[in-house]
Amino acid sequence: MHSRTLLLLSWAVFTLAALPSTTDFDHLDPKDIIERDVAIIGGGSAGTYASISLKDKGKSVIVIEKKNRIGGHTETYIDPATGKPIDMGVVIFHNLTIVRNYFARFDVPLITAGSDLGSSSDSVSANYDLRTGEEVKIMTPSQANISAAFATYAQFLEKYPRLNDGMFLPHPLPNELVMPFGQFAKQYGIEDAVATMFIYNAGLGDILTVPAIENIRVWGKSLVQQLSGGFLTTAHHNNSELYSKAQAELLSARSLLLSSEVTYSFRRASGITLIVQTPEGRKLVKAKKLLITIPPSPDLLQAFDLSRRERSTFSKFINTGYYTSILRSTGLPDNLSITNARLDTAYNLPTLPGLYSIGRTAVPGLKIAYYATPRSTSTFPLSDADVKANIIAAFKKLQRANPDKFKNEEPRFVAYSSHSPFYLQARPEDIKRGFYETLYGLQGERNTYWTGAAWRAHDSSDIWRYTEEEVLPGLIEGL
């Protein structure tokens, strides 16, 4: 009994020592005290959408964003010589009412992706094994067979309509949702769709070994429908335009702190208290409720007083590394796009870590490259230096193996971005034990709500719909 009392007393002393002194708050200038209905952590796709939606519903918000801009995975490189934009993060959106309305609110015009490009007779696509740089000739399924495979897959999805809204898994959980996706593809005869799924769902990891539901969460009913109906993109080919306009509105409303981080949090039923380090010094944020939209990795949530249940749940996540870049002087012709492929693997899929593809851009002399890792327990699976070195090495292998096709140049980065940790997901054994039910059960505890890719999918259109339909109603209640 005495030892337990001493332990509790020691814990209390430690905790009090860790808290900011009340006199620190007494000396804060009134302008450094921010009171809002909702504090939002992260100004990416989910955080920005939530802030605008709440603002339109008459609620006051403050968005706290670590970077000097909002937009998250949506990044656009503007070529200084031509002024042309190149989207190097989020590129396409679903043709849904919520998407069209969101862009229309900021007067950002949308078009069907690819509709303004016309037919480019000189466009060339090829498959290369980027381990060696050598071109590989592979047999790809016909478009008719791919369409048939997706039709079969769409029929399967009809069995689980709630999966179109989030990770709302049926009970009891059928094995077909947690078996390796490669096994799932064979069982349902959709092998001809696998390569397409792999490319569109970049950053998932090894698609053949992930639990089927982890691929289905992106490849849901809505995404399958876009294959025939057409995706949307911005008419100006600058998806960051949406976020620059949202940023201007939030700044003018004193609802956004950029280049800012939470250093301390106190979450209770009575409300939320945050200490935020900003370029102008410390701010005290008081809010009725908190919405966290950054990846729920314990490594990224150290400033928050995680409960035992939160920490236990979030610690079960695994993730990948995903990286996008734009390079100059690659030695490749402007009209060439390359898919990384192997002759000796199922569906000719490349080995990760490695490049998914090298794409054309609207700017002559520039190529866009997409690189990813397998699933990992490390929040940041590879260093940026290693990723960059591997990307450069792939281009040099292409040059050496094809001196008659490609120039011998020294590739250099004009833009690079790490999206890690990417695609937070769960192991099959944890899914079977109710991981996602436990995860969703955290909503509302201690006036804290959660949204973002880890809670829905790495797809902005799905994130916005999940946030609007599944998260905000509970958050708004009682405000």
Account of the protein in words:
This protein is 32% helix and 22% strand. It is an alpha/beta fold and 479 residues long. Helix 3 crosses helix 15. The protein starts with a helix and ends with a helix. The protein folds into two domains: 178 residues, FAD/NAD(P)-binding domain (3-Layer(bba) Sandwich), CATH 3.50.50.60; 204 residues, Polyamine Oxidase, Chain A, domain 2 (Alpha-Beta Complex), CATH 3.90.660.
pLDDT averaged over residues:
94
Number of strand segments: 20
- Structural class category: alpha/beta
The CATH C-level class name of the largest domain: Alpha Beta
> How many alpha or pi helices?
15
Number of domains: 2
CATH topology (fold) name of the largest domain: Polyamine Oxidase, Chain A, domain 2
User: β content, as a range?
Assistant: 15-25%
Instruction: Provide the helix percentage.
Output: 25-40%
CATH architecture of the largest domain: Alpha-Beta Complex
Taking the sheet with the most strands, its summary is: 7 strands, mixed
Radius of gyration: 24 Å
Low-confidence regions: 1-18
- How far the N terminus sits from the C terminus, by CA atoms, comes to 43 Å
Shape: globular
Organism: Paraphaeosphaeria sporulosa
GO molecular function: oxidoreductase activity
InterPro entries: FAD/NAD-bd_sf (IPR036188), Zeta_carotene_desat/Oxidored (IPR050464)
Keywords: Signal
